[in-house]
Amino acid sequence: MAQAVYILCALTSLVCAILLLRGWRAARSPLLFWSGLCFAGLAVNNGLLLLDLVVFPTSMDLRLLRNLTALVSVSLLVHGLIAESR
Fold first, then answer.
1. pLDDT by residue (tens digit) across 2-31?
2. Are 85 and 76 in contact, with CB atoms under 8 Å apart?
3. d(CA 75, CA 67)
4. Hey, where are the domains in the chain?
């Protein structure tokens, strides 16, 4: 059951990233761009979570890489929000 949740979270993040980046391409709004990059990073993060907990549960620890991708993703969104408020 947990595997299905991890897969659905990764797919949802990926679809959000695609839709946001398509919207950015049409409207050229910077906030759409930064949000799309954030969700792309979160999709990678969810994929790493799936690999870490389901595919390689005991042989590898991807916690540091997962936390780093989450930090970069949220930092991109914060940067976009700050840049938009100027």
1. 999 999 999 999 999 999 999 999 999 999
2. no
3. 12
4. 2-85
